[in-house]
Specification:
Blueprint lengths: L3 H14 L4 E5 L15 H6 L7 E4 L4 E5 L4 H7 L6 E4 L5 H8 L5 E4 L6 H12 L4 E4 L4 H5 L12 E2 L2 H4 L3 H15 L3 E4 L2 H8 L1 E2 L12 E5 L4 E4 L7 H7 L3 E4 L4 H5 L6 E4 L6 H10 L2 E4 L5 H5 L3 H28 L7 H13 L4 E4 L4 E4 L22 E7 L1 E3 L2 E2 L2 E7 L4 H18 L3 E2 L4 H13 L10 E3 L8 E6 L18 E4 L2 E4 L3 E4 L2 E8 L8 E6 L17 H18 L5 H10 L4
Parallel strand pairs: 1-5, 3-4, 5-6, 8-13, 11-12, 13-14
Antiparallel strand pairs: 1-2, 2-3, 7-9, 8-10, 10-11, 15-18, 16-17, 17-20, 18-19, 21-28, 22-23, 24-27, 25-26, 27-28
Helix pairs in contact: 4-5, 5-12, 14-15, 16-17
Family: Belongs to the peptidase M24B family.
GO molecular function, one term: metalloaminopeptidase activity
Keywords: Aminopeptidase, Hydrolase, Metal-binding, Protease
Length: about 600
């Protein structure tokens, strides 16, 4: 089955054999991960779509793929419109589409290990109104036809020591135990891979670019825990690190273990745990308490050690970025630099630090019209050269033991148009507005999002992604629950109150389809702010990312005096922070790029 059309046909034949009239294929795994291991890449295998968010639905005569505004162009380039219809989230939903398109009395299959209980409830209701059923499968039909499906990773875990974690696993589990007692609960399920990595101070390599290991866990009200992970993944160092307070089981024993919890009160996160966990516990006679995973908020609020590590990682990463930008300024105008070669060169500069564990995501290396795709992923087929008088956008990050980085810089090769400068400056103004915002404690990211968009809105334009996402500590580059996003956004989380210690991205953008794209991204830390005469506890942001912003793309007439001072001050800090990491021509180039406007 070399073609995606063949794969779709094979799946339809399997559904007919399974007495199903349709099947829902999400892009996730049994941990509701954003990025998944190769064994769980069912959506990409079936459709060809390589974005990081999407769902497909297959019916006997129709098939649809659902993506949000970040992937409007990409999905059409990667998924064959002769076989799939393109559906936009949030304009419609899988449940609504099924209600409109499934036949009366249809049996629509779903894998309960790949959907939340809330999604199942909504989909069942929508189908019931059509006289159709949602049917849980015991074996995913894609797995039945995916003959060369990769096996889950067997890579070993590693210890994330207290020198990087800042707190012991025992201390974290005891805090959870105290919380469980307040809830009058016996245990909490941890199914998100980042939660398990953080709670047990371990890391893994089972998912590209995210240092996590495939596992499940339960933390009990006495501070002990049960960890479910393939035994071949545990070396003596990890077993010793886990200690007697952690009982280790095979990962395959997780579901049977849940069936033994009759009469127990168990906390399960309805946003992070799959429906199968709820269904298994309820079927076993346990009392399920739907509440947030107790590691989520402590994980998002970085401790002093994690913040210090992140600052160190940013300095190291920033020096690599500066070396790359200088190289690019010399080589791109000569011709011969492509999106792929630029991304490879940037990775080389990061690797030269000697401390790079991985990239934090596939580098978004977009030249000209490809830069207009917010989540563009360069391939041999799409690879473009960097051409004169065109924009190049590079969004990238590194995974280091002491921190996770994420930075976007947009540069001009040659001379920009007046429109490019106008749009770039409006994006910069939005970035500055977020960076300098002051707000009372309890403010949500959704309340700040407009600050970044106001200057683009004034010109009648906007961007179809959130302004900022949370970032982990040597964990996921996209970490909840905090984010800066519009109300009603498909990227949930903007309603979380921002708290000191949270790290977010600040990344407004502008994208002109078929022409160019712009994004400026720094990471920022939520910190307390002292304001004379303030009657409330006030917060603001501290900038963590340091690298030059391309002054050739700035229309200085659009900047206020305060914005000009911010940029000059920022560039002075770039020199002060990154300069000591550089020598010779690299340092001289940096100082020239950061000269005051």
């Amino acid at each position: 089955m070399s073609s995606h059309a063949d794969r779709l046909a094979a799946l339809r034949a399997q559904l007919q054999s399974d007495r199903l009239d349709g099947f829902v294929v999400p892009l996730t795994d049994e941990h509701m991960s954003e990025y998944v291991g190769s064994y769980a890449q069912r959506l990409a295998w079936l459709t060809g779509f390589e974005g990081s968010a999407g769902t497909a639905v297959v019916l006997p005569e129709e098939a649809a793929i659902f993506t949000d505004g970040r992937y409007t162009v990409q999905v059409r380039a990667q998924v064959d419109g002769d076989h799939w219809s393109y559906q936009s989230i949030p304009d419609t939903s899988v449940a609504e589409w099924l209600q409109a398109n499934a036949a009366d009395g249809a049996r629509i299959g779903y894998d309960p290990w790949l959907h939340t209980a809330d999604w199942v409830k909504r989909a069942k209701k929508a189908l019931a109104e059509k006289g159709a059923e949602l049917i849980a499968v015991t074996r995913n039909p894609i797995d039945a036809v995916w003959a060369d499906r990769p096996q889950p990773s067997t890579a070993r875990l590693s210890v994330q020591g207290d020198a990087h974690a800042g707190r012991s696993s025992a201390a974290k589990r005891q805090e959870m135990a105290d919380w469980l007692k307040e809830k009058k609960a016996d245990a909490a399920v941890l199914s998100a891979l980042e939660s398990i990595a953080w709670t047990f101070n371990v890391r893994g390599t089972d998912v590209s670019h995210t240092p996590v290991a495939l596992a499940f866990a339960l933390v009990s009200d006495d501070g002990t825990a049960d960890l479910f992970v393939a035994s071949e993944k545990l070396g003596d160092d990890v077993r010793q690190h886990l200690g007697n307070g952690v009982r280790v089981h095979e990962r395959a024993d997780f579901e049977p273990f849940l069936k033994t919890l009759r009469g127990k009160s168990v906390v399960v996160d309805p946003q992070l745990a799959v429906a199968a966990i709820f269904e298994t516990l309820e079927g076993a006679g346990a009392k399920v308490i739907a509440a947030r995973d107790p590691s989520v908020l402590p994980r998002a609020i970085k401790n002093e050690t994690e913040i210090a590590g992140h600052v160190a990682a940013q300095v190291r990463d920033g020096a690599a970025i500066v070396r790359f930008l200088r190289w690019l300024s010399i080589e791109a105008p000569k011709g011969g630099v492509t999106e792929l070669s630029a991304a490879a060169k940037l990775q080389d500069f990061r690797a030269a630090t000697g401390l790079l564990a991985d990239l934090s995501f596939d580098t978004i290396s977009g030249a000209g019209p490809n830069a207009a795709l917010p989540h563009y992923r360069v391939s041999e087929e799409s690879n473009r050269p960097l051409e004169m008088d065109s924009i190049y956008l590079v969004d990238s990050g590194g995974q280091y033991r002491d921190g996770t980085t994420d930075i976007t810089r947009t540069v001009i090769v040659g001379t920009p148009t007046a429109e490019m400068k106008d749009r770039f400056t409006r994006v910069l103004k939005g970035n500055i507005a977020i960076d300098t915002a002051l707000f009372p404690a309890g403010t949500r990211g959704v309340q700040l999002d407009t600050l970044a968009r106001q200057f683009l809105w004034a010109a009648g334009v906007d961007y179809a992604h959130g302004t900022g996402h949370g970032v982990g500590a040597y964990l996921s580059v996209h970490e909840g629950p905090q984010r800066i996003s519009p109300a009603g956004s498909s990227q949930a989380g903007g309603d979380e109150p921002l708290k000191p210690g949270m790290i977010l991205s600040n990344e407004p953008g502008y994208y002109k389809t078929g022409d160019y794209g712009i994004r400026i991204e720094n990471l920022i830390l939520v910190v307390p702010r002292e304001i004379a005469g303030a009657e409330k506890e006030m917060l603001g942001f501290e900038t963590l990312t340091f690298a030059p912003i391309d002054r050739r793309l700035i229309d200085t007439d659009l900047l206020t005096g305060a914005e000009r001072r911010w940029l000059n001050d920022y560039h002075a800090r770039v020199v002060a922070v990154i300069g000591p990491e550089l020598e010779g021509e690299d340092r001289a180039w940096l100082e020239a790029e950061c000269a005051p406007l």
